[in-house]
Amino acid sequence: MTETVETKLFIDGAACGTSDGGTYEIFNPARPAELVGRAAAGTPDDVERAVKAAHAAFPAWAALSYGERGALLRKVAAAITEDMQEVETRARLFTREHGKVLRETRLEISRLGERFVQSADYGERLERDDLIRAAPNDTIITRQPRGVAALVVPWNWPLAILGAKLPQALMAGNTVVVKPSANSALAPTMTLHKIAALLPPGVVNILTGSASRIGDAIIGHPLVRYVNFTGSVDVGRHVMKVAAENITPVTLELGGNDAGLVLHDADLTGDAFQRLYRGAFMSTGQICFALKRLYVHRSRFDEIAEGLGAAIDAQVVGDGLLPETTMGPMNNAKQLKVVTDMIAQARARGQKVLELGQVPDPALYAGGYFQRPTLVLDADPGLSVVREEQFGPVLPIVPFDDEETALAMANDDPFGLASSVWSEDIDRAVALARRIEAGYSFINAHGPSAQDGNGPFGGFKKSGIGRNFGYEGVIQFQGHHSISGAAGVLLTD
Questions:
Q1: CATH number for the domain harbouring residue 192
Q2: Per residue in 400-427, is it b (16+ CB within 10 Å) or e — as a string?
Q3: Quick check: bond before 136 cis, omega within 30?
Q4: In this structure, are 116 and 204 located in the same domain?
Q5: 149 and 271 share a domain?
Q6: 173, 140, 143: which is closest to 57 by C-alpha?
Q7: Domains of the chain: total
């Protein structure tokens, strides 16, 4: 019999049950009848305890130097990755509850540790104030932490996305209340427990459960001084409304409908098709900044369709725990229907739709939340698979004849998260990337495997507000504070 686990909340330095003892069940998306575990179903009373614990812990945590906080972050980074047997146990659990292949869960855990170190490395830079000498006054421009930060994490890459906000919030001097997604809460919560236990009580508090029950209580709590949310546009809009009641500032990293532009001189030798594949289909396409629209110069269209199609057809779709599997199921039935409806619409409109990849276990495939990786060739730009975020394993490919047309199509979208340009002429690619309305652009690559975490990440338009990652991601969790005095008196050296 497959082992099940149960996770608790973590409030004020200790793991604990909920105020009413409630839990909820999480099932394996590859085998939806298989119970993976139970997570604590938090209540508004639990929210109150967690926020008050974070608020009480804030003064002492904020009073530490950047060096002291950085040292604790490095200790955390070591602790969550040093016991490889325990890391593997968490990775396998996460694959069972989420569906993604095991090597991706291992990558998430390792990246979380790396991002704690990265944030700690900004300590010396964060210590420096900006100084203005301009008679009759001198001014010191410093920054200070905001207080309790609410961190809301989605189900698709919860550990990696924790690494984009948790160490940054802590390094900036804030205490936190973390709300993982209800859809994949077990392994992330176990990881968070390890982190929280290494820090002073109240610095990191963890609440799991339904967003409909506790989400507004967290975001709208008057002691929460900052909200960092990653998720859908519709929920992000709601988060803004709730936070506005207390004039609480927010960072929102929302959806994306990322365009990739393959120019006539793109280098398609070597592993180019593998990079295209990873950009679009990593994590079964369930990545906010996955490649979701591919615009290809007409002279290279057939080459792209054939080469990318071959790379996709070699993939093995199945249980993410099996060593031969390269693409797992989608995480949930709701998102699977979004994708299958888009594919059905494309077929109904007479589009050329290629469902590719190998399915060694048809019975498993039929019973789980699976969708084979799919291409829609010469896609009509008006199709939902082009106009809307798929968040699944389907990619439309649209031909173009000139770069200005490609640029116009790329920018004709309400989202502006990421993009990519594929060209042998790097200067030309960068010049075109500068004109794409996106917060992050890749050259000859796309997606998490090509991302530099030292650079700020976020979007324009409906893709969000503010930035995560990098030095800029740390100072998002701070407010500027100007201190002014008489020239030559305040600043004497």
A1: 3.40.605.10
A2: beebeebbebbeebebbbbbbbbbeeee
A3: yes
A4: yes
A5: no
A6: 173
A7: 2
pTM, whole model, 2 decimals? 0.96
**What pLDDT shows up at residue 258?**
98
For residue 421, the cross-strand partners are 261, 443
Residues 271 and 243 in one domain: no
1 — pLDDT class (breaks 50, 70, 90): very low
What single DSSP character describes residue 72? H
For residue range 378-403, what is the model confidence (pLDDT) as tens digits?
999 999 999 999 999 999 999 999 99
Task: State the first-to-last Cα distance of the chain, in angstroms, to the nearest integer.
Answer: 72
DSSP secondary structure code for residue 469 in this structure: S
Task: Find where tokens 């799991």 sit.
Answer: 208
Per-residue pLDDT, 492: 87
pLDDT band of 337, cuts 50, 70, 90: very high
Query: How big, in percent rounded to 5, are the helix, strand and coil portions of the chain?
Result: 40, 25, 35
Stretch 54-71: mean pLDDT, rounded?
98
Measured distance CA(183)–CA(186) in Å, rounded:
9
Q: Tell me: do 249 and 283 sit in the same domain.
A: no
Q: 148, 225 in Cβ contact below 8 A?
A: yes
Neighbours of 5 (CB within 10 A): 17
Structure confidence by residue, pLDDT tens digits, 3-22: 899 999 999 999 999 999 99
- Do residue 365 and residue 474 come from a single domain? no
Structural domain of residue 208, as residue ranges? Answer: 5-254+467-481
Please state whether beta strands 14-16 and 9-11 pair in parallel, antiparallel, or not at all (unpaired). Answer: antiparallel
Contact 176, 153 (CB under 8 A): no
What DSSP line would sit under 339-357, residue for residue?
A: HHHHHHHHHHTT-EEEE-S
Which whole number is the average pLDDT over 262-284? 97
User: Contact at 8 Å (CB) between 317 and 357?
Assistant: yes
pLDDT tops 70 at residue 323 = yes
For residue 459, being part of any structural domain is answered with no
Residue 491 lies in a domain: no
In the predicted model, what is the mean pLDDT of residues 270-288?
97
Please check whether residues 90 and 151 belong to one and the same domain.
Answer: yes
What is the Cα Rg of the chain in Å?
A: 23
224 shares a domain with 89: yes
Verify that 281 and 196 share a domain, yes or no.
no
CATH number at residue 388: 3.40.309.10
Q: What is the mean pLDDT of the chain?
A: 96
Total H helices, total E strands in the chain: 18, 23
Task: Encode pLDDT of 147-174 as tens digits.
Answer: 999 999 999 999 999 999 999 999 999 9
Q: Which residues are catalytic?
A: 253, 288
